[in-house]
Amino acid sequence: MVVCGLACWRCRWLLPLLLGLAIIMGIIALAGRGWLESESEPYVQQASLWESCTRGEEDLNWNCESLMDYGWGRAAAATYLVGFVILVICFALAVIAFSIEILRFNFVRGIGGLLFVVAAFQIIGLVIYPVKFTEEIPLMGDNMFSWAYGFGWASTVVVIGCAFFFCCLPNWEDEVLGNIKPTYYYSSPERAPYLN
Description:
Pfam families: PMP22_Claudin. By secondary structure, the protein is an alpha+beta fold. The protein has 5 helices and 5 strands.
């Protein structure tokens, strides 16, 4: 019987792998220009976390304005960026925690607590941005919050899921370390006459 539960060494790397995926999605959100885009043609507006760009219907060049000139723009960028930096630190700590032979489960629970802090910072940045953007930046045409903004939320959702798993993992310390013997269930001879 082959069973790969949490006691399997390679299965321990799933949580750091998910944190790495959240980092990749965070990089896409930080670098992407698709936080806000025109919904249909003519494409006259696009924005990132850092700047807002507009152009005329016949114009090919974008006229960009930095969002760092606004207090809310600096706040949204700073909170999301601080959350991202803490996420990278948590990833490094998770790799260290899962690399040692005997896991330090209180250390793992601390990583889970830091991940909740990451989620709080990212959510604050992701909420400040659309609320203040739509209030203070004149929108042209029909617009939508687009793919890069979605990657920011996807990163946050993965971080929240990993935070719960990191916090709950010490409750199954024996299963993860393989200290519990498997339970085998056998049927009695009366119930299985073909065993005689």
